Amino acid sequence: MGRREILDPMTDALERWESAVADLWVRADALGREEGVDAMRALADACPAADGRAAFELAGMYDSMGFEAEAGSAYERALERGLDEARHAQLAVQYGSTLRNLGRLDEAIAVLEAAPLHASTGTAPRIVLALALHSAGRPDAALRVALEAQIDALPQYRRSMRAYAAALTERVDPASR
Fold it and tell me: Do residues 109 and 92 make contact, with C-beta atoms less than 8 angstroms apart?
């Protein structure tokens, strides 16, 4: 038996599981809080993978349904078990937001500052970081991060906008004026 035949049952099972998760997310807004969590918990329990994807999806559903404390624990399990690059980047955004909502601002800022860059999240980590900084009473740093998140999308004025954003948090020595 070749390697391909050995891998196919696992690949097929994972594809079916991923499809079921995607289908659940499509209808999540129509579900009640408990119903959505119960449905994702059943899918998480049936996940054929040993990595953190099941915990990640369950955390996301907890989050989506307003159960932030439960989401935090599930995000931590997902991190412990490991994730692919896209889910890891998405976890940083979602977990950072959850930590912010739980009032764990220093942790939220640390998670978001360390968030990996990935096409699946775009500038979302920086935007949520700006929100966390604002919640932490650091409005100048929050504004700087929010502005910097948008600079690369500008067709021109990038250098000037970077300087303006940096000036929000740079310390100016009054004696140098």
Answer: no
